[in-house]
Amino acid sequence: xxxxxxxxxxxxxxxxxxYTGMGIFLLGLLIFTITPFxxxxxxxxxxxxxxxxxxxxxxxxxxxxxxxxxxxxxxxxFGSDFKRVFNEVNERLKANEEWGKVMWTPSSDTALxxxxxxxxxxxASNQLLFFLLTFGLCILxxxxxxxxxxxxxxxxxxxxxxxxxxxxxxxxxxxxxxxGWLFFFYIILYFYPYIIADTxxxxxxxxxxxxxxxxxSKWFLYGLMYTVTMLVMGVRMIIKYRHNKYQIVRTxxxxxxxxxxxxxxxxxxxxxxxxxxxxxxxxxxxxxxxFDWNVQDLLANGQFGKFVFVWGISLxxxxxxxxxxxxxxxxxxxxxxxxxxxxxxxxxPYRQLSSKKMWSWKLERWMIHLVLVFAVLMTVFVGYHTxxxxxxxxxxxxxxxxxxxxxxxxxxxxFLIGSVFAGVIGTGFYPILGNRAWCRFGCPLAAYMGIVQxxxxxxxxxxxxxQCISCxxxxxxxxxxxxxxxxxxxxxxxxxxxxxxxxxxSAVCPRxxxxxxxxxxxxxxxxxxxxxxGNQGFELKDN
Amino acid sequence: MIQxxxxxxxxxxxxxxxxxxxxxSDDEILIISAETEFFFSRTALMYVYMGxxxxxxxxxxEDWFWKKNRIDLMFDxxxxxxxxQKQLDLKKGQSVSYDKLxxxxxxxxxxxxxxxxxxxxVQGLYTYQDLEEVEENSKNARNAVIVGGGLIGVELAExxxxxxxxxxxxxxxxRFWGNVLPKEEGELITRHIxxxxxxLRLNTELDEIIDDGNGQVKEIRTKDGEVIPCQxxxxxxxxxxxxxxxxxxxxxxxxxxxxxxxxxxxMPDVYAIGDCAQFDNPVDGRRPxxxxxxxxxxxxxxxAQNIAGNRKAYEPxxxxxxxxxxxxxxxxxxxxxxxxxxxxxxxxxxxxNGKIALHVVWDQTTKEFKGxxxxxxxxxHELFDxxxxxxxxxxxxxxxxxxxxxxxxxxxxxxxxxxNQFNEKSGLNISFKKRSWWRxxxxxxxx
Lengths: 543, 447
What we know:
The complex is a heterodimer.
Chain A lengths: L8 H26 L10 H7 L2 H7 L4 H5 L5 H21 L11 H12 L3 H4 L1 H21 L1 H4 L20 H19 L5 H5 L2 H7 L7 H23 L4 H24 L23 H8 L2 H26 L2 H4 L4 H8 L12 H34 L8 E2 L2 E2 H20 L4 H4 L3 H5 L2 H12 L3 E5 L9 H4 L7 H5 L15 H5 L5 E5 L25
Antiparallel strand pairs in A: 1-2, 3-4
Chain B lengths: L3 E5 L3 H13 L3 E6 L11 H5 L15 H4 L2 E5 L2 E5 L4 E4 L4 E3 L2 E4 L3 E3 L12 E2 L4 H11 L4 E5 L3 H12 L3 E5 L12 H13 L3 E3 L4 E6 L5 E6 L4 E3 L2 E4 L3 E3 L15 E3 L10 E3 L4 E3 L13 H15 L12 E6 L2 E7 L9 E7 L6 E7 L5 E7 L5 H9 L4 H6 L1 H4 L10 H12 L10 H7 L4
């Protein structure tokens, strides 16, 4: 009797390789995770002097005298002591109404700066080694793991076996661990970055490729992780869907946009004295576009800066709606966007976890459009302020409009939407809410494009007559939580604001029912009568 | 007048009937099922076993849907029906009366009297209970034998393989699904099933299923005398109407419940739809008992119209169907029989990878297109439906093959290769119509 492939000795070999890959990855991840505990941080008076502004130094020199004698093993230890001192001083200054001396730079950022220059720990002294032990091992291990899919999972085709039996992808304990790791990583990255100063340090060798000896920021670490993750998980995506050219082309494109526009150009442009902007990041996803410092930065940077400013405006006002009209919002959300790119690569194993319930659709429509309104209002306030900065430099209280401060509003937006929603919830919750929670419930650009897609676009997912058997694969694997089956089984086309055109519903359909198409707006909704094709007893409504 | 409509069976036929009765009337609607509380997609049971979906994912409607649409659900078993008193006798005790009764009671896996066919570990795959059973039977299984080379057989094979259970697949015919697929397609699928490490035995029949002494299957013996050890036996040699509980009543039952084109049985106000119905006069060259998802749906739509007072006959239109064999998708439009019919001729194209194929059949004299089988290519139902209804010629079909393609964007197209080979073989010289396909699609004026 023929052994099933899963039981052959060849399979055993492959599985050994696979689990070795996983072991290497986990080792890399473990080292990465403990780097924050390997510091040797002594923030001397000299370092404080070099990194702080004159005012800050004057305020903090004496209160920090104790701390500067100590050696800390973790950025967390130094940071919490530093912040305590910093806040005490600042509060005293505020209480005494010494406004000229009050320090406005956030204490976490200052703490990070100090740790970065004071660190002499094992990571800081062996940056390349630790880069290889973390990034290197993780990349190597995951690629080994992923490449075995080519043989282990059999001939090309939809391979979703065991997804709901696997605790990594069914909200089981592995999924919860992944969630915990991501959640804490985002909290630390956004709000306590000084904790991972050692981790940031290990990217120095890569940063030096672009600018010799420039100290990497936390965003460099994040950008590098993000890009590398998309590259590696993009390989996984291509292997998984190697029978499906739409998925292959789309995955290569979205990964290249991340690599070139969001990572390389952002690093390379400044080396030519140009602003390091992500040229594909469109307002209102790029909520900082009209912030005073951004506009100043662009307009102060010669012709190229002006070009980027004009490009940014035309991207949002012309390119986005025109492209959505012709191709649907997929051209951005699943072909270009960084958030979408991470969702389509790292997030692909979690796509089935998005809720398909009617209540979640209702919630989605409220939330995403409220965020859009918030983004527009915030931009009005910020735009007013920026306008004044340029046009009325003499004006007092440039930021105040209708009694509200543009600074306050933009800080709330940055915190709530920019950090908590897009980052912590958007990515951290992949293993619980699925991979598109941000894109579905929070992204204001997705909301804007969704309105265009729903009411004025040539894009739709066509249902193929009466072939649907209501199996539910399309709905289950829709990352946006669209109940695709509800349309397909009625013979209707799918025209939904939230569809990002990932094409996976079409890929997983066992009966060849769904096809993403751009076509004339007439007849876009397909069968609107009650009866599905394959029944001559009833008149179909003319369409 | 508000009438009370009772539907026995909550499969696709019964549920479609209920939904369309609700669309057309304010009738009181009650669906009784002994299988599950809520409707689910039977065709998707395999995906639950394989871990692609959870059971809740294969329910096409959320649980609140029924109440919102005033469709009452009852989870009980109908033991017998009193057609004179219009009453149903239920297992849990109470009886239910009806004004109109729809029998949508589905079918059962065929068992052909094999010794040992009722042993533990021997099962079909049709009901929710079968899913629970196969889950249970798989726990300690290393080897499975599947008997019967049809669609459910290949589903079961895929299921077992996904759990690392070795599969021996016994097929009576000389090729897989030999009573439906022509030789070339049967061989293509046979190769693909074997590529997935299924031990597919053609021309092999089951003789006996053997007990381990405790009522559990231990092994099977084929008619050639070979003994194959196994802990599970999947019986997938087709299904037949689930009508045993109705035999002996005044209801006319043959293989299935006999109905006319309006889904009416011989008893007043009693209808039968779906797998359990048998047409007294089969429609459009179709079989008298049709056990396909969409025919159940259309019968449900039809009976709902009749109950709502719009007298409509069952008109399913041109035949179509689809399936997936492991990784290969299959669609068919019109009739491509296992053997060419009188005066028919055909053309078969297969990609060199042996996994993509197209087979067209047409009338030798009139050139009328009869049907197409495709593997690994998707085709537009709407276009073929039109072509079949309008008796389009084979030339028209081939000239518009690009328009008919429904594969995802960026897929490699094979129409050129197909047409070149077709012209070479047939001596015809067909060329592609200019591809103004959107206009075609919109106006439905194909070609």
